[in-house]
Structures are given as structure tokens and as C-alpha cells.
Amino acid sequence: MAFYAWGVGFYGHGFYMVVLGRSTGWPVATLSGMVAGFWLANVVSSLAIGRLTDRFGARPAVVYGALAMAAGCFSLAAFEAGFFGARWQLFAIFALMGSAYPGLAAMAVSASLVPWFKRRLGLALGIALTGASAGGAVMPPLMTWLSARYGFASAMTGVGAALVLSILPIALFLVRPPKGGEAAREIGAPAAAEAHRRPAPARFLRDVRFWLVAAACSLSLGAQVGFLMHQIPLLQGALGLSGAAFAVSVAALSAAAGRFVLGALSGRFPLPVLAAGCYLIQAFGLLLLLAGEVPALLYAASAVAGFVIGCIVMLPPLLLVDGFGAQGYGTAYGMTAAGMFVMASLATAATGWLFDATGAYAWGLIALAGLHALASLLVLWHGRRRRTGEAAQ
């Protein structure tokens, strides 16, 4: 699930922007706005899928995610082949893929694992989301190679077919809640039962700590997505298209190591402190990209920024379960994800606008680093409020 969610629906956008920009001649701001539509569609989809997973489990969400993401791949192939060519049609394709993303990515993966794990949820997420790093490392270079050899339309048709054939058996046979005492050793029978109770969203909306977590996660993911959606266009001038795609792979492989480090440390240090550290590490990596156009430095900066890519994706589930428990997790994550995807959309579009206005990505990178700095302050504030509340009790 994570392999295709990130490989096709996350890291793939920089590749799509370059190929479609060449074929259509549309400016970066227009293509960025269409990618922003991908993240806006996530807002509505996350709210709906969050409630759906609390009620029926993760399986229906995963089935929809696989079918809709594959349909988006087939539609991109048809667009490139000339079956249609209006701007609103391309926007609709990205929106369709965006609505599929929560059904394959962190929301569905974490919702599949939360009923099974409590003590080792960080480690379980770290292992499961290794697929995200693999997808980011494999898919952009693979799609670039397939497109060069067979054409973009054939490449996307093959990717869509492989996605459906891979994901549907997983959804139908592997994604399910625990039966009987299957998860009792890890999560405890009372906690496992609690994971299936469905509180109203108002429970979270009245809690200031929830708003702090949601805001910190939204700002950090927005900054991360704003960078990753523009990473290939940002680097292709100095590295070429193949070199820029390889830089995406470097970031994704670095993320695999960072994800396991966070999983190992999540039970030993306060999560708000770890989260703030992750946000600041990526901010440093983004600013390092401003230091010059030497290829080795650009790859190193991609590795630094990439080291916490997986951590920033893992932190929302961990912070929510740590702060509020498993009860109503789907609802809590759905509301948090709505904010995250709004910020992802705005950051992606704003980075494109700043590029068109200035002719460079420098101000966009500075703004994205500033979002990370603000997120670190908010998550530390959340940790302080939580410690104060626990002391009062």
C-alpha cells in the first residue's frame, strides 16, 4: 500500500509536472495548482475515510484507494495520448488521485495497525511504511525510464495495472481487525475493544491540545510536500531530469533510515521533543539547498531533508495515539489529515507562485523552512500543556 501511495501519488508529482509541462507548455504555477488540487481532494476524502474506518475498518478505504489511484494513472495516460486536453480535465485527474491517497497512505496503513499495536506502534509503523521509502526510491526513476523507452501513456497504463493487481489482494485478504485475543498480548483486551468505539468529532475539537497537534502536523507536512512536489523541477537545472529523479531516490532511501530511528526512539523520549527535532532537521536540509549548485551538495541536502520524510509522516499517528488513545482514532486522524492536506495544497501552490514571481526557488525554500520552525514551536507547546495537565491530575 505504502509503496504505491508514495511512489505514484506522492513522489511521482515532480515527474508528472516535468513531463506534462513539456507536452502542454503550461507554466509551473498552473501545474502546481493542479497538483494542489490533489491535496485539496485529500481534505474531503480524509474526513470521509476517517469516519468510514472507525465504522467499518480500513478495508473499504483501501479498496477505493487502489481503484481510484489506478483510474488516475489510466486517465493521465489518456490525457498524454490526446484523448482530452482541457486544463479542468487534468485538474480533475489529480483530484481523483488525491481522493484515493488516504486509502493507501498513512491514514489507511496506520488505521490497519492501530487495532493491533500499542506498545510497539512506532516500530510497527516504521516497518510498514518502509514501503514509502521503497516507492520513492523505485518509482520516479522507473517511471522516467519507462516513459523514455515506451512513452508516458504506456508507462502510466502499466503502473496503474500493477497497482490494482498488487493492492486488491492485500485489501481483501490481509487488512482486517483482530479476532478474539489476537492482539491482546500487544495492546491488551480493553484497549483493543476501545479502538472500535466511535466518539463524536466534538471531543477533539474542544481540546486545545488536539488543535496544537493538528496545526504542527499540518505546517510540517505542508512544508515537506511543498518541497517534494517541486524537488525534481528544483534540481533538474543542475542535475538534469535523471539526476533529479535520482535525488528523489536519495531522499527516499535516507527516509528509510530515519523512520527506523524514530520508531526506536519513540518509546524512550517524549514524542513532542522528537517531533520538533525532525521538523528542524528538514528545515536545515531545505536551507542547505540554497548553498550552491554543486551536485554532491545537492544530493547531500536531499539526504538531510529526506532523513525525516518518513518521520514526519509517522508523527501524526504517533502523536494522536499518544495524546488521545485509540478510541476514535480514524476520526481524529481524518480531521488532522484534512488540515495537513490543506497546508500541502497551499504550500505546493505558493512555492510555484514564488518561483514564477522571482524566477528561482530560493524564497520558496526559505518560506518552507519557516513553516517547519513554527511547527516545532507548536508541538513543544502541546508537550508542555500535556505535562501540565498530567501534573494537575
What does this structure look like?
With 393 residues, the chain is mainly α. The protein has a single domain (2-173, 196-392), classed as Growth Hormone, Chain: A (Up-down Bundle), CATH 1.20.1250.20. Helix content is 82%, strand content 0%. It has 19 helices and no strands. It has helices spanning 2-9, 12-24, 28-56, 59-80, 87-100, 106-113, 121-128, 130-150, 152-173, 184-187, 189-194, 202-205, 208-229, 231-265, 271-288, 295-306, 309-324, 329-358, 362-392. Helix 1 packs across helix 8, helix 8 (130-150) packs antiparallel against helix 9 (152-173) and helix 15 (271-288) packs antiparallel against helix 19 (362-392). The termini are far apart.
Helix/sheet category: mainly alpha
CATH topology-level name: Growth Hormone, Chain: A
Mean pLDDT: 83
Ends apart, CA distance between termini: 41 Å
What's the level 1 CATH class? Mainly Alpha
General form: globular
Q: How many whole angstroms does the radius of gyration measure?
A: 20 Å
Corresponding CATH architecture: Up-down Bundle
Number of domains: 1
How big a fraction of the residues is strand? under 5%
CATH superfamily: MFS general substrate transporter like domains
Query: How many alpha or pi helices?
Result: 19
Query: How would you spell out the order of helices and strands?
Result: HHHHHHHHHHHHHHHHHHH
Low-confidence stretches: 189-196
Oligomeric assembly: single chain
Biggest sheet descriptor: none
